[in-house]
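Re: [ENG-882] Designed sequences occasionally contain unexpected residues at chain ends

Forwarding the minimal case from QA. Structure tokens:
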């Protein structure tokens, strides 16, 4: 089985001003890059969009201008949501190469393939584009980052399996059997098609570290290894996983993450069982007991992504993350906000958990402001 390495995800870099995503703390970031390279790691992941489009420029200064090109690998992602015609692929890829100051990508991905954005990617012929990018040497490997359910992934691989080398997927012990994220099912499909897997959100954006005291105690009783160590090892132990990206926000986190991969040990069946138990315990602390079965989605006349909103509500109640608000607003723009509920009641009869969905959606609308 391939041994996975740690990748430096340049999407949660240290900032000088917490309210300004473009204010990357270059001094700390440069120290982190140097430490990462010294420790024998060399994989960096960025995108056109991260840090209000400044992540690539920061990598250019801290990495590209200071290290020989062959000493590191860079993955970057085409901003799918900005594509409206075929020529846009080239336009954005040229900007991405220029911002980074490099001639080629080690990995070029079509960013955020989901139900809505697959149409954009296909409309702009992006799969054909990345294939040509590989043939002409603009990218050594190509693929997608994926945020949807198993049916869409199966469909994408059936159509473009011969093109895709790499899939960047969300995989962590909390989402392993989650009905919405479906890490286990998504992972299985990637393995079936022989696609190399890179992992994002192995610690669920840091949320798996902010557990209740009771859960923390159970982790302490179980092992001397930290919660982050177990979460990273869970992701890295799965078949076909080659890179686990961690959005390390400071040098301390980086040191801990590097340590895990320097002395890497796969999780044992006992660890797996324990982590599944912890996932259940953590879920118990969530505010809305939705099972994410999606039954309610079929007949909602307002097209409200009900389970996704309940998941974000739970996460926000527990962790208060700015990313929850961003995710809520994105979903509300693509589909409809919780406040659009007409209280028709159709979903109430369908809900497998017998939740009073219209009432709960009012709480969601209040929490997220729309
Ligand atoms: S009550 Fe609201 S959420 Fe439920 S089906 Fe009707 S519009 Fe959709
Ligand atoms: S039917 Fe109920 S339990 Fe299932 S996803 Fe919808 S709200 Fe959640």
């Amino acid at each position: 089985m391939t041994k996975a390495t740690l990748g430096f995800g340049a999407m949660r870099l240290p900032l000088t001003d917490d309210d300004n995503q473009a204010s990357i703390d270059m001094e700390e970031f440069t120290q982190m890059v140097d430490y990462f390279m010294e420790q024998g790691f060399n994989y960096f992941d960025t995108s056109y969009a991260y840090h209000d489009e400044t992540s690539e420029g920061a990598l250019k200064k801290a990495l590209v201008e200071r290290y020989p090109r062959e000493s590191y690998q860079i993955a970057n992602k085409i901003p799918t949501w900005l594509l409206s015609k075929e020529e846009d692929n080239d336009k954005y890829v040229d900007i991405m190469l220029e911002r980074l100051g490099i001639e080629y990508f080690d990995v070029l991905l079509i960013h955020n393939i989901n139900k809505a954005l697959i149409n954009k990617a296909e409309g702009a012929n992006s799969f054909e584009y990345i294939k040509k990018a590989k043939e002409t040497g603009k990218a050594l490997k190509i693929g997608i980052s994926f945020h949807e359910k198993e049916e869409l992934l199966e469909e994408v691989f059936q159509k473009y399996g011969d093109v895709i080398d790499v899939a960047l997927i969300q995989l962590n012990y909390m989402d392993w059997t989650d009905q919405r994220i479906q890490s286990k099912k998504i992972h299985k499909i990637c393995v079936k098609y022989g696609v190399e897997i890179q992992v994002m959100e192995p610690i669920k954006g840091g949320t798996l570290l902010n557990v209740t005291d009771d859960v923390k105690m159970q982790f302490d009783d179980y092992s001397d290894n930290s919660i982050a160590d177990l979460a990273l090892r869970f992701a890295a132990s799965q078949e076909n996983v080659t890179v686990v990206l961690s959005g390390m926000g400071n040098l301390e986190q980086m040191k801990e993450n590097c340590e895990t991969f320097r002395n890497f040990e796969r999780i044992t069946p006992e660890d797996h069982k324990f982590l599944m138990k912890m996932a259940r315990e953590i879920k118990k602390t969530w505010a809305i007991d939705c099972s994410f079965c999606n039954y309610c989605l079929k007949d909602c006349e307002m097209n409200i992504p009900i389970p996704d909103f309940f998941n974000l509500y739970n996460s926000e109640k527990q962790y208060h993350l700015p990313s929850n608000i961003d995710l809520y607003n994105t979903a509300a723009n693509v589909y409809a906000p919780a406040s659009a509920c007409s209280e028709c009641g159709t979903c109430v009869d369908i809900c497998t958990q017998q939740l009073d969905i219209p009432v709960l959606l009012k709480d969601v609308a209040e929490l997220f402001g729309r």
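QA comment: On inspection the terminal residues look reasonable. Residues 300-302, 304, 306, 341-347, 357-358, 361 surround iron/sulfur cluster (ligand 1) (CB under 6 Å). Proposing we downgrade this to a documentation issue.
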